[in-house]
Design brief:
With 271 residues, the protein is of the alpha/beta class. The protein has one domain: TIM Barrel (Alpha-Beta Barrel), CATH 3.20.20.70. Helices cover 34% and strands 29% of the residues. The protein is built from 11 helices and 13 strands. Helix 8 packs parallel to helix 9 and helix 9 crosses helix 11. The model has no long low-confidence stretch (mean pLDDT 92).
Length: 271
């Protein structure tokens, strides 16, 4: 049986100048602009036919603060589809509290890179289906990597970064994806720093490199500008889900528009 491809809207949440959680949208993880209220946006996407919903606290890890669990709880009250929450999750207790607040899955990036055993601990304690390992990947055209692909005629590898792409780790994304899977990650959330917010399409070489290496479901993220981009990352890279923000936030396309486009081209989706 062919599994349906999932269409997942995502909100990037930060605290505004008054300390109130708000949704922001930017390009390459910078130049963030206010977009809306997280709870209202969650409610809207739930009603619009999203397959899942992702809530990312985009500065919790960089600023060393806890995830906004009160807001997570309010969002969880409005969505009746799987909810993934990421940002600021550093320990097994953080995973527990985030799930208790209403999340179905947690997305972990920095803490997993720093303490890979957290993946094993989380999978054992809460089940692999709850543990999503997020990767903020950046292209590197040097000799520091382990797994290379050709991009625009040049040999390239992808580096895991932290703090919104501001700091490199020297860790090869493809090697890390394989390790995360072996440790019990139930899903991989692959973000491209280079494509983020550009609407020029997903980083297909990046997504394909990961999909070709692991059997764990892969969510493609960053760069979606149209239904055609979703089609490309599903058919050319093999992604299991496509995540998008801007095209949905600003009503350029509806979730229904994207699903009908894919269905017309024989990509299995839930209509």
């Amino acid at each position: 049986m062919t599994l349906t491809k999932r269409i997942i809207p995502c909100i990037d949440v930060d605290l505004d100048d008054d300390g109130t959680p708000a949704v922001y949208t930017g390009v390459n993880f910078e130049d963030l602009k206010y977009t809306g209220d997280p709870v209202e946006m969650a409610k809207r996407y739930n009603e619009a036919g999203a397959d899942e919903f992702v809530f990312l606290d985009i500065t919790a890890s960089a600023k060393g603060r806890e995830t906004m669990l009160d807001t997570v709880s309010r969002v969880a009250d409005e969505v009746f589809i799987p909810l993934t929450v990421g940002g600021g999750i550093r320990t097994r207790e953080d995973i527990k509290e985030t799930l208790r607040a209403g999340a179905d899955k947690v997305s972990i990036n920095t803490a997993a890179l720093e303490t890979p055993d957290l993946i094993d601990e989380g999978a054992r304690a809460f089940g692999s289906q709850c543990i999503v390992i997020s990767v903020d990947a950046k292209r590197r055209f040097d000799e520091g990597g382990e797994h290379y692909v050709e991009v625009d005629g040049e040999s390239c590898w992808f580096e895991c970064t932290v703090k919104g792409g501001r700091e490199g780790t020297g860790i090869d994304v493809v090697e890390w994806a394989s390790e995360a899977e072996s440790r019990g990650a139930g899903e991989l959330f692959v973000n491209s720093i280079d494509a983020d917010g550009t609407k020029d399409g997903y980083d297909v070489p990046l997504t394909k490199a990961v999909c070709d290496t692991v059997s764990t479901p892969v969510i493609a993220s960053s760069g979606c500008g149209s239904p055609e981009d979703m089609y490309e990352v599903f058919t050319e890279a093999g992604a299991d889900a496509g995540l998008a923000a801007s095209i949905f936030h600003f009503d350029e396309y509806s979730i229904r528009d994207v699903k009908e486009y894919l269905d017309d081209r024989d990509v299995p989706v839930r209509l």
